Amino acid sequence: MVKLSVVVPFYNVQTYALETLRSLRANTREDFEFLLVDDCSTDATPEILERAVRDLPGAVLLRHERNGGLATARNTGLDAARGTYVTFLDGDDWVTPGYYARLVATAEVLGCDFVRTDHVQFTARARTVHRVPVGRRDEVLNPRDAILPVTRTTSVDYAYAWAGIYHRRLLERGVLHFTDGLRTAEDRPWIWRLHREAESFAVSGLLGVFYRRGVASSLTQIGDVRQLDFIRAFDQVIAETAADPEADRFLPKAVRTYCAIIAHHLAAKDRFEPAVARQLRALSAGALKRLPQDLLKEALDSMDLDRSDQLRKLRRRMSTGASGTSGTSGTSGEAAA
Question: What is the pLDDT of residue 320?
Fold first, then answer.
């Protein structure tokens, strides 16, 4: 029996892949498997992964003939996963020795559908601990309750798939798969679905995942059209939340978060190519137009002046004929609700 499946997508990360793989080697156990997904890399990553399969116990190499993006690569790993539990790691991040054994032990003690964990974010030599925005630790909770309150950063804003462990029953119910083809913001519809559809979760202060920031090839650092996928991701969040039996309870939070993410991208529009910046404004205006207007007004009234002014300008553009359609491709952005 496989106890844990670790899904690890790789795409053109030859600089960091060896460090990631060394950290997996320090986490091997006879009942652990490591699903290494090569998303059609064009650098030396495929050769590195071929050697890893020979040297890393439990490693399984899965290849894409076409680049599909992180969401699609994770789904490939999920489809092959055999473990009682599933977790994720990105191909340029790493974990501390023995971390996965401790993570599984924590999940088994708590006995819930999923466990969320804190993580360490690092850029060059700087390291910062980031906490799950849930105060109660090592206690089984209702994940739907952790979506709220509306005006604070909550568990659905901590959208890191690799910061946790998930029981296989969620995979069998179709809760763990990502929206195929999303280039960025893939964690956003996923984390909302997880909190709406799972029955129990807990938060652990267990630290072991190191999340690398500032990678030049990361989509968070590249101002091209793929970053606009946040529009498609949040349109999905809104549509699925609106269909929930408690839509009146949760939709104000989804709308406000969508507005916060739009404002985050507009404030950083100078990093985009000019044509993409124009598309960002048009798509964002269209997104605001599609939102329930009463909830949009509540969201804008509750936000700080800079962000609300920025979004109100887009609303005025809509009244003069500016609009947009659902997005093409993009990045999640890190904006508090």
Answer: 63
